[in-house]
Amino acid sequence: MNEKLGRQQSIRVGEHLRQETISLLCSSPLKRCLETAEEIKRWHSVDIVILEDLKERSLGKFEGRLYSEKEVKKALSTGTAEVECLEDVM
């Protein structure tokens, strides 16, 4: 996903949630997640709680590249190709 589209989506999420009652806002420390949390916070008087455990799964050699769905599913289920296995994620 390109950065401009991601930013637009973050803004839309913040606007969509502006009328909701939010008493706690948690985010991954990852940049795009924090940007989305900031857009939500714009409409609410809450602090953002950053949780390291919300970081995304490591996809090893698959990160930033295109592979077949079959290759990715196999690696995700077996933990091969330096992909963080599902048990570790949980």
Provide key terms for this protein.
90 residues; mainly alpha; two-stranded parallel sheet; 2 strands; 7% strand
Number of strands: 2
Write the element-wise H/E pattern from the N-terminal end onward. HEHEHH
Alpha plus pi helix count: 4
Over all CA atoms, what is the radius of gyration? 16 Å
The N- and C-terminal alpha carbons lie at a distance of 26 Å
Provide the spatial order of strands within the biggest beta sheet: 1-2
Shape: elongated
Structure in words:
The protein is mainly alpha-helical. Helices cover 43% and strands 7% of the residues. The protein contains 4 helices and 2 strands. The model has no long low-confidence stretch (mean pLDDT 84).
Compile the SSE list and pairings.
Layout: H1 3-16, E1 25-27, H2 31-41, E2 48-50, H3 69-78, H4 86-89
Parallel strand pairs: 1-2
Helix pairs in contact: 1-2
Quick structural gist:
By secondary structure, the chain is mainly α.
